[in-house]
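Is guanosine-5'-diphosphate placement plausible here? Inputs below.
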Amino acid sequence: MPVDAILGLQWGDEGKGKIVDFLADKYQAVCRFQGGPNAGHTLWIHGKKFVLHTLPSGVFRTNTLNLIGNGVVIDPTTLVKELDMLDQVIPDLKDRLYLSQKAHLILPTHRWIDLASEVSKGKNKIGSTLRGIGPCYMDKTGRNGLRIGDLLSPDFKQDYFNLKEKHLQFLKLFPETEFPIEAEETKWFESIEQIRSLQLCAGEFWVNQLLSKNANVLAEGAQGTMLDVDFGTYPYVTSSNTIAAGICTGLGIAPKSIRKIIGIAKAYCTRVGSGPFPSELLNETGERLRKEGNEFGSTTGRPRRCGWLDLVQLHYSCMINGVSDLCITKLDVLNAFEEIKWVDSYTLKNNLTTEEWPFDLQQIKQVNESGVNGWLQSLENCKSPDQLPEQVKSFIKILEKKSGIPLSYLSTGPGREELICF
Ligand code: GDP
Ligand code: IMO
Ligand code: MG
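Reply from A.M.:
I modeled the complex. Tokens:
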């Protein structure tokens, strides 16, 4: 009856989608527990690329059910677009897809507020994906939101217009922004009609019933630990709990049902959007990581900021999440680097050196790096740990020691099978 989880240990885009897709056929269900269409999870299936924003990454596994949990915020327009994209590719998708009645709905005006709020922040903007995530979660915690289950209420349209009116009043507080509200609203209501025909369920009963029948369930996180609203680089974060704690509130399961926490980290670091990033490389090496790693956002196409792996940050994330299994992705991106570096401590403005993630990241005066020689070869033919070059083995040892977690998976390419299991 266990739940295993896959979640990001850095600033998102660690390759969660690929790993969920790889592991999904061992599970009866894959359940997304938080976030919304700010996520972009990339899957390569038979040489074809698919980017999922709201759908769980288990959809390509024919024997796996998929739940969009109560912790997720759903934009009907984006969800319907995703369903349309997959209509021909996965004919039975709608039979295997369930939506929690308690998941909140992103309204067009949530996206408008997101935009107005970012514009008003000027150079201090969060760098939001502008998908309406923050304003939707604000309505959830402010107890104003509309949920998937409300779609079946005869009062739904009136409730929508009441909330929209509140939003229009709120928007008056911001400098004027242009937003094609009428066109967006038309698309939104068309999509709502399609969503009504999906399998809407009490997600918490659905998942607990599966668990009581001894099913294995895989929880899929979005974003990453450093974007968590409590433990991330606040205020430059998203608006949900991306960490392990979010699994329980985002699905309605008890902590005792969680078995493994599989934490995903890249072999280096990236961040898209604004905010602190201690190991960021604003030089040629950073450019090279971006180029070799094709580091451009899966949702917005923005260039991702790049830097070396930060072991202070990784250790913090492993602690917060109680990571039991570590997965390192995109190791192949480092194949051509003569030297591979990582950050192992920070020197603060008071001249003290620390290996602990500080509250005020502005206090970091210098990041202290160490390195090993690169392996300077392709990893294409490495299918098991013993086939890895010695330099990779040394890098892994350091990583395991510093994070305190044994490596379970090493990803050496975007494809489903480009993965070494330890
Ligand atoms: P997610 O949001 O965590 O699912 O990650 P994204 O899909 O946003 O970004 C990860 C990117 O890296 C995608 O383009 C993946 O296809 C790609 N990717 C995943 N694992 C690997 C890997 O091991 N090597 C390489 N080169 N690319 C990878
Ligand atoms: P996946 O699931 C990377 C970032 C945005 C911005 C901040 C707040 O693909 O890893 P929001 O739209 O939530 O208001 O944005 O969080 N962000 C992500 N960065 N991967 C993601 O998701 C992200 N989702 C949000 O760039 O800095
Ligand atoms: Mg992504």
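Short version: The mean pLDDT is 97.
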